[in-house]
């Protein structure tokens, strides 16, 4: 497979409301949308505002997950200059599982656990593939879509997903004691766990020709079944990042000069004591091997929460915007900036010394790990 693949359009719904640009503004302002849940039985979460004008009004016959996915998809398509998904496209859905058949004895909450089911909104010719790799699902889906475009299988690949609060996923985080009693504070020494968030995301990928986009997916790698049953080990994460860098080196023009060196890293960091440290340790090894220091590293999960299978979408929007603007966003909840080996963890926005490459990490239970390399380019080059 040869050739680069560009991000032609991005769409996002978060606890800040609809819109990728709105999310980026709030993230850079250091604001958090994490609040005590309006639903009984839930703690501090990031809920999509019920009155947000950018999200269609609730339909009791449809899952909210579908509304968030559709809203994000419309924004991504518009960014790509498309009014609808082309009939020769491929759609990849990041999800816990494909939608389950409707049954009278099926619990109502199951509709928000599986899916979303977009088939009725797509041309009959468009295949829909579901990818489930825990919290790395959307990143796995993006790299699958990238390969579909690079191979010439399709000229347009769409990755979409959504997450809403539901009993199944919330209780699974609760039972392993991963949830924080306060808003999540990734990288902060006083962090106490994760906060779940709601939302949806979508990305349109096309060949990097003409005016396809400023951001190119230039490298990536995935790994499955790490050494530990619940969280990846340092060696697994470092190995995945190194493989992503090697993949970027192998694709011209990124591999035409010096080895790929990230100017910014958007971390998976969720706010757990173990997970954040393991990621920083792995990242420290990789950056040190490259001879780098003070590389800005941040996470969005203290701002909008952890969207589980769809958590990669806010990360992708943030990393893409960081390259376009030359600005590293803060990690909301981190009380003061600090160094962690060769990583610089900003508590406020920080200028990027370079804006060529960004790394985006996405990790999941069971050893599902993914790392993606993005390159900023002059439009049309």
UniProtKB/TrEMBL annotation:
One of its GO terms (biological process) is fatty acid biosynthetic process. It holds the Pfam family ketoacyl-synt. InterPro entries: Beta-ketoacyl_synthase, Ketoacyl_synth_C, Ketoacyl_synth_N, PKS_Beta-ketoAc_synthase_dom, Thiolase-like. This is Ketosynthase family 3 (KS3) domain-containing protein. SUPFAM superfamilies: Thiolase-like. Residues 2-376 form the Ketosynthase family 3 (KS3) domain. Keywords: Transferase. It comes from Micromonospora rosaria. One of its GO terms (molecular function) is 3-oxoacyl-[acyl-carrier-protein] synthase activity. SMART domains: PKS_KS (SM00825). Belongs to the thiolase-like superfamily. Beta-ketoacyl-ACP synthases family. The keyword Methyltransferase does not apply. The keyword Transferase applies.
């Amino acid at each position: 497979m040869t050739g680069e693949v560009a991000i032609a359009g991005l769409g996002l719904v978060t606890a800040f409301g609809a819109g990728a640009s709105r999310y980026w503004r709030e993230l850079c302002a250091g604001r958090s949308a994490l609040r005590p849940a309006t639903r009984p039985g839930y703690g501090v979460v990031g809920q999509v505002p019920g009155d947000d004008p950018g999200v269609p009004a609730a339909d009791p016959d449809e899952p909210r997950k579908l509304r968030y996915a559709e809203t994000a998809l419309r924004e991504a398509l518009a960014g790509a200059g498309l009014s609808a998904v082309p009939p020769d496209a491929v759609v990849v859905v990041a999800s816990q599982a494909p939608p389950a058949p409707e049954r009278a004895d099926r619990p109502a909450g199951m509709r928000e656990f599986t899916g979303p089911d977009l088939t009725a909104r797509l041309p009959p010719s468009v295949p829909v593939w579901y990818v489930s790799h825990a919290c790395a699902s959307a990143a796995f889906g993006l790299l699958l879509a990238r390969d579909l475009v690079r191979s010439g299988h399709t000229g347009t690949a769409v990755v979409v997903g959504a997450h809403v609060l539901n009993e199944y996923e919330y209780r699974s985080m609760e039972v392993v004691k991963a949830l924080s009693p306060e808003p999540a504070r990734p990288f902060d020494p006083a962090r106490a766990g994760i906060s779940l968030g709601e939302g949806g995301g979508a990305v349109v990928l096309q060949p990097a020709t003409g005016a396809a986009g400023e951001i190119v997916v230039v490298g990536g790698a995935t790994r499955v079944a790490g050494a530990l049953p619940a969280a990846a080990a340092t060696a697994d994460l470092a190995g995945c990042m190194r493989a992503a860098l090697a993949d970027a080196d192998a694709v011209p023009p990124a591999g035409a000069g010096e080895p790929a060196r990230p100017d910014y890293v958007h971390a998976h960091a969720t706010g757990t004591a173990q997970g954040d440290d393991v990621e920083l340790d792995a990242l420290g090894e990789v950056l040190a091997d490259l001879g780098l220091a003070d590389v800005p590293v941040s996470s969005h999960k203290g701002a909008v929460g952890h969207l589980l299978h769809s958590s990669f979408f806010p990360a992708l929007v943030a990393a893409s915007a960081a390259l376009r603007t030359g600005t590293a966003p803060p990690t909301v909840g981190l009380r003061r900036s600090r160094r962690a080996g060769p990583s610089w963890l900003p508590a406020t926005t920080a200028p990027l010394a370079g804006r060529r490459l960004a790394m985006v990490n996405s990790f999941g239970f069971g050893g599902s790990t993914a790392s993606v390399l993005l390159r900023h380019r002059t439009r049309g080059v």
